[in-house]
TrEMBL record:
Its EC number is 3.1.3.84. CDD domains: Macro_Poa1p-like. GO terms for biological process: peptidyl-glutamate ADP-deribosylation. InterPro entries: ADP-ribose_metab_enzymes, Macro_dom, Macro_dom-like. This is ADP-ribose 1''-phosphate phosphatase. Keywords: Hydrolase, Protein phosphatase. Residues 1-179 form the Macro domain.
Amino acid sequence: MSSQGTFRITDKVGDLFDAPPNSVLIHACNCIGSWSGGIARAFRDHYPDAYRIYNAHCKRSLPERLAGTALLIAPRPDAGKQHYIGCVFTSKRFGRAKDTPAMILRSTAPAMLDLMRQVAAEMENGEEIGEIRMCRINSGLFSVPWQQSKRVIERLQLGEEDVPKDVELPWEIVTYNPE
Ligand SMILES: Nc1ncnc2c1ncn2[C@@H]1O[C@H](COP(=O)(O)OP(=O)(O)OC[C@H]2O[C@H](OP(=O)(O)O)[C@H](O)[C@@H]2O)[C@@H](O)[C@H]1O
């Protein structure tokens, strides 16, 4: 690995979905299988096939096992957009039953590491990965101030056991927010 195994986050104003092919678009998910509100609803509208894969993944497992993990969904033929969808499971449930901010932050670190390991594995298989884009996860319906999640992600360390030597992971994560 040429860099230190830490991520640099750049915050931008713009449309998350207006990304080049093979970009990874990351958002925070509950473990119940619902993309019904916030940006998750837009993901469901743009990528219905990815929603079905996410939902089936949740149905196969218990929320307690999924929290702190991630699911990387490869580009599907739907909507014509060739984007990877990165689901980070940061709260077991949603709405009034969502986890506390402290629990959400505790799940965010291992979930992001799990996702990046999956991205690295995809690259090791010869798949092309473009930009890593993210919404300001946890900061809307999950009610965790963005700066707190951002700090957790910037402190992550990926070692050689996470990223194979010959893989050059993109170490910049760009967030896109409408305002
Ligand atoms: N249409 C849109 N286009 C662009 N940006 C949009 C947007 N809508 C919101 N944002 C921004 O995107 C960031 C994250 O805010 P969100 O509230 O989405 O997500 P979150 O990570 O706090 O929470 C996750 C739970 O929200 C969902 O809703 P359900 O539980 O299904 O109802 C999930 O399924 C999870 O459970 C904030 O910066 C919002 O300004």
